[in-house]
Amino acid sequence: MNTPRFSAFAASILALVLCSACADSETGLFPTNSARVKVKVDLLHRPLPELPLPSDLATRLTPASPTGRRINASLVASTHFERLVRGKIDELDGWGVYMPISIPFDGPIDPLVVRKAHVGDDYATANDVVYVIDVTPNSPDFRKPMPMDLGAGNFPIVLGERDLNGHSSSDARGDSLSVLFDEVDEDTNKNGLLDPGEDTDLDGLLDQPNYLPGQTPTATDLAGRADALMTFYERQTHTLLLRPLVPLRERTTYAVVVTRRLLDAKGQPVGSPFPGAHHLDQRQALQPLAELLDTQPAALGGLSRADVAFAWTFSTGSMMNDYKVVRDGLYGFGAQKHLATAFAPTLQLRKMDLEQDNKPHAGMYVLSGATFSAMLQLLNGTFFNFKDGSEEASRLMKAQKYVDFHVFGLMPSPRLFPRKGPNGYLDYNEMTWPVDLATTPTAAEVELVPFWLTVPKKSVSARKDGKPASVAIIGHGYMSSRIDAALFGGYMAQHGLAAFSIDNVSHGLPLGPKELAEFATDYGDVAGSLGARGVVAALADTRAWDQDLDGNPDSGADFWTAYTFHTRDVLRQTAVDYMQLARVLRSFDGKRSWDNDCNGDGKGGDLAGDFDGDGIVDIGGADATIGMTGSSLGGITAAMMTGLEPHIAATVPMCAGGGLGDVGVRSEQGGVREAVILRIMGPLYVGTPKDGKLAIQTVVPRMNKTETITVSHAKLVKAGDGVLVQNLDNGEYDCALVTADGRFQVAVASDVVMAKPQAHKISIFQGNPFLVGVRDPVKGKACSVKAGAKPVQVVDSFDTDVKFHFQSKPLLFKSGDALAPLAEGLALHRARPELRRFMGIAQTVLDPADPAVIAASWKYGSLKYATGEKPNAHMVVLTTIGDLAVPVATGAAIARSGGLLDYTTKRAEWDQRTANQVLIDAHVLEGVHRYGRYKTPTGEPVLVDPEDLSGSAALTAGTAWLTAPPYPSGKDGYFLPRLRTGLHKFLIGKDNHDGVSGALFPMVIPEGRHDLNDPGVHTDKQVAQCKKLGGDSDKCAAKNNAYFDNGSLLRHTIAAYLANGGKAFEMHSCYSTDNCPAALVPGPP
Known about the structure:
The protein is α+β, with helices and mostly antiparallel strands.
């Protein structure tokens, strides 16, 4: 424990508080007020002081920082994992712009007063009880109150699937609808006291549901529980929680103003922890607030100085500057200008067939589209999965006819963080960018980034006129790879676009030596006969590596993780790779040469960008349009590049998410829960009855999967027995009671120390051995054992051999070895304040890589590079209904942050609702069909279709803004509630830079889905439904029906939008049937 650092931290704040306390309060800006309940500032609270956050009182001034200050973080922590994170927080030059603002009080407040003031008025500020006001004189928002969400519904926290790791039944809070807030009423006898048997989670407190006053939904009423759950107030800690509706500005100071309109539980105004209403050191920073109250009282509903209960300031840090520094360096400017020459724009191409004996592959470095189409059948089931004879297969193969050739290879790009140190792989949080990029040249490492490129045929693209084809950059999903170019390539080629996809950081095809050998054996000879043997070698290129020592590369294993600084920087690094790709594409200017001998003359010096060796540049160049799209992680990176790369003209981020902390606490994406939440909550021990014994198992992340490993055994236990787990090396511990089915779950904060593993001890007691209500105030646990209570079983060693891994090194234990952790973790409890606090700070760390933050920068137009260029792309944010992998609300956050989701203009078409409010009221942002808010005539739960792209709303009688049940079958084959006027009719339109931008929320399937359907999939489902209802094959066939196909409609629309550079976003009906006139989509070449 770093006690000196804690003391210095606490002492620095204590000195400030004492300064305020001993001064004459009349020298403050606001009159002294007294109150029964005050904002809480508790400097003696352990393990960390309690005070409102963010706050400039918790920063230190330093000339070494670009903003003149850095966060003053305590380094006190029991694990190396947490100390490393805190040390890096200490380097941040200000607070986040999208982090929650937390205001603790020393007693309960009235949440209904907050709700009445802040919900239902479309963010009007006249009667607010708390404000966040820009007090930076040169800011465009100077003296303006910022829109804040305090329970309005923009940031839902409820889960679709509540079982986080397959063991939630053994968790005392495993049934909670969220990971953040408690829902259990432990006061079973309603006497207001913690009685024996009531403390089911052993935190030493009498827990109450974090519900709105008066709300008591039953456990099975999931919708009622979701409606009752408060997201803006935490009862246990009396903490008010504010969320910026859109990200704040970077490098800007804000005042948080708690007014005397906020009342405590007794109906009295709240007050200040100091004699005055603010700390005297912040008098100058708060002066603009005082002037606002004096000169424009109407701006805050007549608020006067006397109405201020407490105010303080916080300053946001740098969000965009590192991007500017690095991109400027790529173009020869600034501290990193050496990158321009060290990483000249070029590609290293993969040869397709070394024999070169007249195979039909069209060139040394290109694979013809016809050859690839033949290979698609061979690869089906390996990399692709479509049914022969289906409409999906038909449309895929039709689209492939538009592709002239494929190219594979590597792109050199500067990696700005290290992977290894003297002892091998570093801690993930040490794999981060330098903090001094703006001033100190960095020795970037060369990373060869694999790519897959498809080039359209000349007859359907600008190539027919001797010009390079425009390019659609395709971002791939989490744990996927550049292979997405193969799937998107044909659909992009139908609109004249090349498709270029690269592997994101740590990603690649998951082919280990065995799989590659099998692939070479099964397909190598056939590929060779087609002149494509080089494809096998090209597919082996990867940025992934074997992190768990199973012999196979682990694609994306260290991308979404609880290692927040590393996650931030793999995202930022991926953005730099796309900057380099845009630079490469623009470098194909018809003059530059490269080292690839594409024409096969053996002389070299061929024209850069001429892949097929015909002497003409095939893609890119100065005049070609560059667009970007992608789904999931691909959508996230597309959204980022909208606000980062000036050479990108248009983007369609699909299924993307902003507010990455919100993604982390709700995502059902495979890999995210395991690598993020399980790491935060683990390492877990669970006791599971099995074969007449109690299997002691540890539940830990295996990269981005959950691994349950039996480490020992004990005798069976009974409901109510006590279990105490201790880390004998760092003093951490926790306890639990056995559940009714004889299980338990306990976690203990731990590090993995290879040289001398930490020792764990599990003590099992008969009955409940723990003293009621005796709470460790530092640990927040009630695990004190009653006098005389002795364990009946102790497990402190492995009784089986265990093989695992850590930092890509083997972790081996023999039977009889002392019990030790197999993974590091923080052991934070579900539904306790510590987890909520961690995620709030995590958002501060992640903000510079957050798509919502970058979207706000794009809207503000604040980023300008040394070249004179500014990001100026057009963007349509596409978010699929019911997405719980990257939750719908986080996609809406990107749109709202970029000014594309209106939250102020009420529309008669939606019964005087704003577009943003429609998404809330129709439970689109919640997005969980299991709650059963809307049902088909047969009782199946479904979600609302807010776009009605199929034109089905007119089939339902009535005029209400949302169609009423019973819902008829629509033209899309679905029984759904629908908006009569789709959101896109107002959300997609002309932007302020000569193009079209907006947001779209399409329905894919009634229960919701992450990602679009591939073209033809929707049609195949309707064909199958037609047959199920008794239709014959000919009657139901796609060729005889104009089925609405959402996948085809949107793939074509997206490709056309990227092709026209974002000038028009038109959803033609013929796109749905894949049967358009040549003016829209030329026929197959």
